[in-house]
Amino acid sequence: MKVEQLFTGCLAEMAYYIESNGEAAIIDPLRETDPYLRMAETDKAEIKYIFLTHFHADFVSGQYDLAQKTGATIVFGPNAKAEYEIYNGKDGEEFKIGDVKLRLLHTPGHTMESSSYVLVDKNGKMPYVFTGDCLFIGDVGRPDLAVKSDMTERDLAGHLFDSLRNKIMTLPDDIIVYPNHGAGSACGKNMSSETFDTLGNQKKTNYALRADMTKEEFIKEVTTGLKPPPQYFPNNVRMNKSINTSIDEVLHKGTTPLDPPTFKEMSEQKDVLVIDTRTKEAYTETGTVPGAWFIGLDGSFAPWVGALIKNINQKIIFIADDENRVNEIVTRFSRVGYDNTLGYLFGGIINWTDHGFEVDKIGSLSPIAFAKQLADGSIENPLDVRKESEYLSEHVIGVDNFPLDFIHQNFAEINPNKTYVLHCASGYRSLIAASIFKANGVENVFDVRGGFKEIKETDAPISEYVCPTTLL
Could you tell me which residue ranges the Rhodanese domain spans (predicted)? Predict the structure, then answer.
């Protein structure tokens, strides 16, 4: 028997590969199919089942394409309905994979079709439970993503309480909990950076599994402090219930090389968005195509694409550091449903400037210069683009909060004729924000290199730390 956790850092997502005696199953697959096909081929195994814990909101899952290529059965829990053929498993139903079984536990609450899967080995022992977004390490799934007119988040939280108490917490304490997400995902609010743990330890350390917690206490706890989910979540749920453009077709179209004149012509069309995926250093040193947004591939690329690009059907062309990563870039766009990538700048920025085309540049300040200019009053509009919770816990005195998450909703507050100096925690989010400022007509925008982490090492006045738990 083989069980592998497949962690994707950009999405803080875990898929799972299970193989036993020539048969395999995938739990919560990503959009791309090749990794799973290669694993099965290496093991000389047939992919028999594709299990989904629920309809995901934060990424587009790959069950349909994978089933088309393998003939595997797609299994959801009760209540799931999709445009493609699925099998609705029953609570307690078992599915044979070689010498082992997966037992479906219907665990509604995060969504109503949410299900967990217990692995039962050939000796009848239960070494693993795959909990999806029902139970995370250190947290539980948020109960507000599947709210309908006849179902409130309090209703869903109540179902989640019952699922945890009546299904998950009755399992052996030594069973390993394998969730679908870890720290950094927007599907919970307090997830650990650990990607697995024993259930017994979670009972001791996870606030939501406290033995003496009442249902009302649980509901209050899990519904307090929830921020609005990223705007792309409903689109991804819809896509996960639908038959989408095949990943192979998306990759073929999106990896089209575009020479600089063609790229320039397309970039000037109102319905086309340019995304610069290079490193922070490359972006600031060489400049970018006028109007481009910076969303670096080496940060939380896919979630920021989904959070900031409003139209899921947006036409996108992009700039890459390395043409060997073009396939990866298109894949990562598609993971959150942005399938309308049309190609990349062939030869990169060097080829662009060799053709005599202009570039836009974002100004930058060192943390020391920022602290000095803040002290002497020469910085007109300093803004901290971190999340509100980060800002409230600790920030530079005299700097207002302008979270990147809500930049479009709040952009009316920005005067394009003024000068703005932006910082985040380390410099990634502030460059994204600065690029959007620039693309929207703010000519004088500067980024603080190294962000708040390095500003704290200067003489800049820092607010006293306030424990975030006291802010709820």
Answer: 268-361, 383-464
Reply yes or no on whether the pLDDT at 469 is more than 50: no
What distance in Å separates the CA atoms of residue 470 and residue 472, rounded to the nearest whole number?
A: 6
Query: What tokens does 181 get?
Result: 């997400």
Q: Please, what is the average pLDDT of the chain?
A: 94
Q: What percent of the chain has pLDDT over 90?
A: 90
CA distance 181 to 137: 9
Q: CATH for 363-471, among 3.40.50.300, 3.40.250.10, 1.10.10.920, 2.40.50.140?
A: 3.40.250.10
| Superfamily for the 245-354 domain | Rhodanese-like domain (3.40.250.10)
Instruction: Tell me how crowded residue 310 is: count the other CB atoms within 10 A of its CB.
Output: 11
Which residues 6+ apart lie within 8 Å of 210 measured at CB?
A: none
Q: How far is CA 66 from CA 33, 62, 69, 97, 291, in A?
A: 6, 6, 5, 17, 37
Amino acid 472: pLDDT: 36
Burial category of 211 from C-beta neighbours within 10 Å (exposed 0-12, middle 13-18, buried 19 and up): exposed
Torsion-angle region of 450 (φ positive above 0: left; ψ -120 to 50: alpha; else: beta): left
Q: Is the dihedral of CA 64, 328, 431, 393 positive or negative?
A: positive
Same fold for the pair 2-234 and 245-354: no
Residue spans of the domains in the chain: they are: 2-234, 245-354, 363-471
Cβ neighbours for 115, distance < 8 A, ≥ 6 positions apart: 53, 54, 76, 77, 78, 89, 104, 105, 106, 107, 132
- Asked if 289 contacts 359 with a C-beta cutoff of 8 angstroms, the reply is yes
For residue 173, how many other CB atoms are within 10 A of its CB? 12
Closest CA to 64 of 231, 248, 230, 235: 248
Tell me if 102 sits within 8 A of 18, measured CB to CB.
yes
Tell me the backbone φ, ψ of residue 290, rounded to 5 degrees. Answer: -50, 130
- pTM recorded for the entire structure: 0.92
**Range 2-234: architecture per CATH:** 4-Layer Sandwich (3.60)
